[in-house]
Amino acid sequence: xxxxxxxxxxxxxxxxxxxxxxxxxxxxxxxxxxxxxxxxxxxxxxxxxxxxxxxxxxxxxxxxxxxxxxxxxxxxxxxxxxxxxxxxxxxxxxxxxxxxxxxxxxxxxxxxxxxxxxxxxxxxxxxxxxxxxxxxxxxxxxxxxxxxxxxxxxxxxxxxxxxxxxxxxxxxxxxxxxxxxxxxxxxxxxxxxxxxxxxxxxxxxxxxxxxxxxxxxxxxxxxxxxxxxxxxx
Length: 233
Description:
Blueprint: H1 2-9, E1 18-24, H2 31-41, E2 43-49, E3 56-62, H3 64-71, H4 75-84, H5 87-97, E4 100-104, E5 107-111, E6 116-122, E7 126-131, E8 134-139, H6 144-165, E9 174-179, H7 183-191, H8 193-200, E10 202-206, E11 215-221, E12 224-232
Parallel strand pairs: 1-2, 9-10
Antiparallel strand pairs: 1-8, 3-6, 4-5, 7-8, 9-12, 11-12
Helix pairs in contact: 6-7, 6-8
């Protein structure tokens, strides 16, 4: 559930494969359960960790109500400093010493927890969800290979939908036609041709205009336009 929430937060469809998942707070997770999680979330690798600081941090903003009387003229500069500050280090200092101290324009600044607005933040390329002592972090960085694999899985889903809409039987073999593809999508589908054909029970994938008696639809394949048609082989 946390992994699906993280995917939704990052607007990543479940059919888009991801490279890695980091899991905190799941000691004793069996190999069978780990494999199930990876399959359900369409992620290739899992790493158990007790430290998610490499992927998560905190966003810091000044609390105007308390800082105004203390550092009125420096409020703007303090706000700019906090935008660039290491949120993890600041929260560590607050937890350990009860204050976060730094020097700004020659002035020693000391901030307590009440002087700060602290909210969870995620580092670019990662998305995290936490609940009940467990944290799931997804590596949302997409390599060209992962993007291509996402195209293939999306096309399989679209063709399966079209098979049903066209009234084909489960055992019917089909011809699948593709047109209107850009170079990137075309290359991905050609590379995944055998996998697509096997999954949709296609006798052939044809990268050409379909005949008039084929069932045809226009689709958005992860942001790329494609016209797909199917007919019985």
